[in-house]
Design brief:
Blueprint: H1 16-29, H2 33-92, H3 96-107
Helix pairs in contact: 2-3
Length: about 120
């Protein structure tokens, strides 16, 4: 039994200009039009795969950095809010819930503590 190759025949037509360019390349290399066209299609597909992989890696790296920036930003925002809450408690005589409500009003969104069991900011 002869081993069968897992291949598929592909055929297409080229306009005269591109066919002329292809023919010029084949004359330089001493190969057939069909072989050169095959080489070029394979090279184009392989190049595309490499570019896709490089793009995916770059995108993953950028996404990781964006996530780091967002985490830092959230931490800074949380710290700023907690600082203002503590200031209002110490300087304004407000209790923690009043200070927190005011800061949330100023920041314009609900503030949720991320740490369970966190001690109040009063001394």
């Amino acid at each position: 039994m002869a081993k069968e190759k897992a291949t598929r025949q592909i055929s297409f037509r080229l306009d005269f200009e591109r066919a002329g360019k292809l023919e010029a390349l084949t004359k330089k290399e001493g190969i057939s039009l069909h072989e050169k066209a095959k080489q070029m299609v394979i090279a184009a597909l392989d190049s595309r795969d490499e570019k896709d992989e490089m793009r995916d890696l770059a995108l993953a790296e950028v996404q990781g950095k964006v996530e780091q920036v967002l985490e830092r930003s959230e931490g800074l925002e949380s710290g700023i809010k907690e600082t203002f809450i503590a200031l209002f408690q110490r300087m304004g005589g407000a209790n923690e819930s009043e200070a927190r409500a005011f800061i949330e009003f100023v920041f314009g969104k609900e503030f949720q503590q991320r740490e369970v069991g966190r001690a109040p900011l009063t001394q």
